[in-house]
User: What shape does this take?
Amino acid sequence: NAGVMQNPRHLVRRRGQEARLRCSPMKGHSHVYWYRQLPEEGLKFMVYLQKENIIDESGMPKERFSAEFPKEGPSILRIQQVVRGDSAAYFCASSPRTDYGYTFGSGTRLTVV
Amino acid sequence: KNQVEQSPQSLIILEGKNCTLQCNYTVSPFSNLRWYKQDTGRGPVSLTIMTFSENTKSNGRYTATLDADTKQSSLHITASQLSDSASYICVVADPAGNMLTFGGGTRLMVKP
Assistant: This one.
């Protein structure tokens, strides 16, 4: 079991481009959570998904950000028209059920230049 | 608003010494409280998970305590090692276990 896999580890985008961050949960985990960690700040919840469903997106900006977790394949966090303020580490966590522990990926560090 | 406050923000100790990190929370009710260790550039790794009915949980040199009445938790590290240098994050989960509230973390540096 390879754990939670996130790719790419590092992503550089110019302002206005799109960023796609991928998260493959652990085998058997159907719950996926995305968090953002700004420099020198704590982790902030963005969105919680189960297979094909967004359960809670209260932490996600209303514009430019979207997330999906299709029936097949990884969960995708998509940021359109990136701005400098989007530069951060984005972490994905998965769990097999809601009352179980979470396993975090190593994160994707997005730099917007 | 649910909050998790950690102190101190940063801490420097000598190798071999003990230290205690604090976490105060307002999340209520809650299902469990977790302590994570986050090395620089890595994802958080779970150290302990305690439900509201547990008072203490150990994991090697790490011992977490929980006082649900005062809404306080602590993480005690014994005989610190250089590899303990990291951020330690206190996380409280809502009753459904879906919503995690993160503390800002304590940045620990262990010096030789």
Observations:
- Chain A touches chain B at residues 4, 6, 33, 35, 41-45, 48, 55-56, 91, 93, 98-107, 109 (CB under 8 Å).
- Chain A has no helices and eleven strands.
- The radius of gyration of chain A is 13 Å.
